[in-house]
Write a structure and sequence with these properties.
The complex is a heterodimer of chains A (282) and B (289). In chain A, 74% of the residues lie in helices and 1% in strands. Chain A is an all-alpha fold and 282 residues long. In chain A, strands 1-2 form a two-stranded antiparallel sheet. In chain A, a hairpin with a 4-residue loop joins strand 1 and strand 2. Chain A is globular. By secondary structure, chain B is mainly α. Chain B contains twelve helices and two strands. The chains are: A mainly alpha (282), B mainly alpha (289). At the A-B interface, helix 1, helix 3, helix 4, helix 5 and helix 6 of A face helix 1, helix 3, helix 4, helix 5 and helix 6 of B.
C-alpha cells in the first residue's frame, strides 16, 4: 500500500472514532432515560394527578397541559406561517420588503427561547392583560415556532415544479386560484412535516412558558383559555430541582414520557415525509 | 367580480402575514428596549454594563452584568472548544466517508439528538454527569461551568453537524473529480479541496452553534450552580445571562428595578444573538454562491 493510502486509512479511522464520540452519548442518553424511567410507568402514572406535593401519583395534568399547548400553538402559528411562506415563494418580488421578511425569519429562529418568554410576559401577560394563561403561553410558543414552519413551507412550495403554475396560469386561472389548486395541494405533506417538527420542539420547550403559562402545581384540568396549566417539561424541571425528597424514579418516568411524546411526533413527521416521497408525481 | 374581490382579500392577507413576521422581530426588540430603558431611569447604563456585582435584592441593589457575561462566556467558550472539532469531523465523516446505510443511520441519530428537550439533558446533568465529573476530577461541586459546557456542546452538535454536512455535500462534483483525476486520494481531496470549498458554510454552522449555546437556558440553569459571581475557573459554580432571567423573574416584583434589570439582560442577549445570526446568514449566503 502506498503512503497516501495508509494516511487515508488512518485519517478515516480517526474520523470514525470521533464520530463515535457523537453517536455513543446519544445512545447512552436514550438508554439511560428509558432504562431508569420505564419501571415507574403505569396507567396510574399516566392518568392520575400528582399527590403528596408531587412525590406520588401521576402526571396527567401535565400531559393534558402540554397537549393543549401544542394544539393552541398550531392553531395560531400555522396560518401566519403558511401565508407568509406563500408570499415569499409565490408573490414576492426581489425588493426590500422581501429581503426584510427573510432577514426577520432568520432572526426569529435565532432569538433565545428565554427572550421569547420575556416578550410573552411583557406583551401578552401584562400589556394585553391575559395573565399567566394558556392563551399567553400559546401565543408565545406560536411566535417561536413561526420560523420553522415558514422555512418548511417555503421548501415544500419551492419543490412544486414551475410547470404546474405555468399551465394553470396559461389556462386563465388567477394567481390565487393557481396557488390554491395547483401548488398548495402538492405542498401540504411537506408543510405538515415541518409543522409537526416545529410543534415537537415547542412541546419540549420550558423557558418560553416559565412566566407565561406554566403552573408549579395544579392537580386539576384547566377550565378556560385563561387558566394556567402544568406542562411536562416544566414539571420535570420543578420535580428535579424544586421538590426536596423527590423519588428519582418519578423524575425519570416524567423524562421518559416527555421524550416519548417528542419522538412520537418526530416519527409522525418522518412517516409523513416517506409517504409523500412515495406519492410524489414528478 | 366577486372572484376579483376574494382574490384581493386573500392577497392582502398573504402580504399582511409577511408584514406580521417582520413586525414580530421589531416588537420583540422594542418591548425589551422599553422595559430595559425603564431601568436606566434609576440605574446608570455604565454601572449596568461595567458593574462587577449582581446583587439584585441587597440594599441598595447592584445590577452589574459582568459576572453573568463572564459566566456565559466561560460556558460558551468551553462548549465551542469541545463541539466544533467533534462536530466538523463527524460532518466530514458523514458526508464523505460513511457508506450509504450507515450515513442514513448517523443522520437520523443526529436528528434524534436535536429533538431531545433541553430540560431532559439538564436533568441528566443533575443526576448523572455532575456527580460523575465531581468524582472524576475531584471537584468541590459537580454543578459548575464544565458540566454546563459539556451538555451545551452536546446540544450544539446537531446544528454544527447538519449545516457543515450540507456545506460539504454542496461542493461541486467537478472539484472532486478534478482532484481524483490528478491522482489525489479521497482523504487528500476531502482535506485539501472539499473542506476549504465548504469553509463559508462551516463557519456559518459554527456561528449558529454559538448562537444556540448562548441562548440555551434550562440546561445551564439546572447544572451550573446558579451563583452570580465572577468565576475564576470553568470548574466553579457560575451563572449565565439566560439562567439569571429564568431563575429570578419568578421572584422579581413586576415594575421593580429588578424586573427591568432582567429585561435589560434580555436585551443584551437579543442583541448578541441578533448580531451572531446576521454574520452567520452572511456566510451562509456566500456559501450558496
Amino acid at each position: 500500500m502506498s503512503g497516501a493510502r495508509v494516511r487515508q486509512n488512518i485519517a478515516f479511522g480517526l474520523m470514525g472514532l470521533v464520530t463515535m464520540l457523537v453517536v455513543l452519548p446519544i445512545i447512552l442518553t436514550l438508554w439511560y432515560v428509558v432504562a431508569n424511567g420505564i419501571g415507574a410507568i403505569s396507567l396510574d402514572f399516566i392518568l392520575q394527578p400528582p399527590r403528596n406535593g408531587m412525590r406520588e401519583g401521576g402526571i396527567f395534568p401535565a400531559i393534558v397541559g402540554t397537549f393543549i399547548l401544542i394544539v393552541g400553538t398550531m392553531i395560531l402559528s400555522l396560518p401566519i406561517g403558511v401565508l407568509s411562506a406563500i408570499y415569499l415563494v409565490e408573490y414576492a418580488k426581489d425588493n426590500l420588503f422581501t429581503r426584510l421578511i427573510k432577514l426577520a425569519v432568520v432572526n426569529l429562529s435565532g432569538i433565545p427561547s428565554i427572550v421569547y418568554g420575556l416578550f410573552g410576559l411583557t406583551v401578552f401577560v401584562v400589556l394585553l392583560r391575559l395573565g399567566t394563561s394558556i392563551l399567553a403561553g400559546c401565543m408565545t410558543l406560536a411566535i417561536m415556532s413561526l420560523p420553522v414552519i415558514i422555512t418548511a413551507t417555503k421548501e415544500a412550495l419551492e419543490s412544486v415544479p414551475a410547470s404546474y403554475r405555468e399551465i394553470s396560469l396559461s389556462l386563465g386561472a388567477t394567481k390565487w386560484q393557481t396557488v390554491r389548486h395547483c401548488v398548495l395541494p402538492y405542498a401540504i405533506p411537506g408543510i405538515l412535516t415541518g409543522t409537526v417538527l416545529s410543534l415537537s420542539r415547542a412541546a419540549g420547550e420550558t423557558a418560553p412558558i416559565l412566566f407565561t403559562v406554566a403552573a408549579f402545581y395544579l392537580p386539576r384540568l384547566p377550565r378556560s383559555l385563561f387558566d394556567q396549566v402544568m406542562a411536562l417539561p416544566y414539571h420535570l424541571y420543578v420535580i428535579s430541582t424544586q421538590v426536596p425528597n423527590m423519588p428519582l424514579s418519578l423524575s425519570f418516568a416524567t423524562a421518559f414520557v416527555l421524550i416519548s411524546l417528542v419522538f412520537l411526533m418526530n416519527l409522525v413527521s418522518i412517516i409523513l415525509r416517506a409517504h409523500y416521497r412515495r406519492k410524489r408525481q414528478w | 367580480m366577486r372572484r376579483a374581490i376574494t382574490e384581493r382579500i386573500i392577497e392582502t392577507c398573504i402580504r399582511l402575514s409577511g408584514l406580521v413576521v417582520i413586525l414580530f422581530v421589531v416588537l420583540v426588540f422594542l418591548f425589551l428596549l422599553k422595559d430595559a430603558v425603564l431601568l436606566f431611569g434609576h440605574y446608570p447604563l455604565g454601572q449596568f454594563l461595567l458593574g462587577t456585582k449582581w446583587l439584585p435584592i441587597s440594599e441598595p441593589p447592584s445590577f452589574g452584568i459582568i459576572p453573568l457575561l463572564i459566566g456565559s462566556l466561560y460556558v460558551t467558550a468551553g462548549a465551542i472548544v469541545l463541539c466544533v472539532p467533534v462536530g466538523v469531523i463527524s460532518a466530514m465523516f458523514i458526508a464523505e466517508v460513511a457508506p450509504g446505510p450507515l450515513k442514513g443511520i448517523l443522520k437520523s441519530l443526529v436528528e434524534i439528538l436535536a429533538s431531545i428537550p433541553s430540560v431532559v439533558l439538564g436533568f441528566i446533568g443533575l443526576v448523572w454527569l455532575g456527580p460523575f465529573l465531581k468524582d472524576l476530577l475531584g471537584l468541590r461541586t459537580g454543578q459548575c461551568g464544565l458540566t454546563g459546557s459539556l451538555l451545551l456542546a452536546f446540544m450544539a452538535l446537531p446544528t454544527i453537524i447538519s449545516i457543515s454536512e450540507d456545506a460539504l455535500a454542496s461542493v461541486p462534483k467537478a472539484f472532486k473529480e478534478a482532484a481524483y483525476g490528478l491522482g489525489a486520494t479521497r482523504w487528500q481531496t476531502l482535506w485539501r479541496i472539499c473542506l476549504p470549498a465548504a469553509s463559508s458554510g462551516i463557519i456559518a454552522a459554527v456561528m449558529l452553534g454559538i448562537g444556540r449555546v448562548i441562548g440555551e437556558t434550562m440546561v445551564v440553569m439546572m447544572v451550573t450552580g446558579n451563583s452570580p459571581v465572577i468565576p475564576r475557573s470553568i470548574t466553579q459554580a457560575l451563572r449565565t445571562l439566560t439562567a439569571t432571567i429564568a431563575s429570578e423573574m419568578g421572584e422579581a416584583v413586576s415594575g421593580s428595578e429588578h424586573y427591568y434589570a432582567l429585561f435589560a439582560v434580555g436585551l443584551v442577549l437579543f442583541i448578541s444573538t441578533f448580531l451572531i445570526n446576521l454574520v452567520a446568514d452572511a456566510f451562509l449566503r456566500r456559501a450558496r454562491q
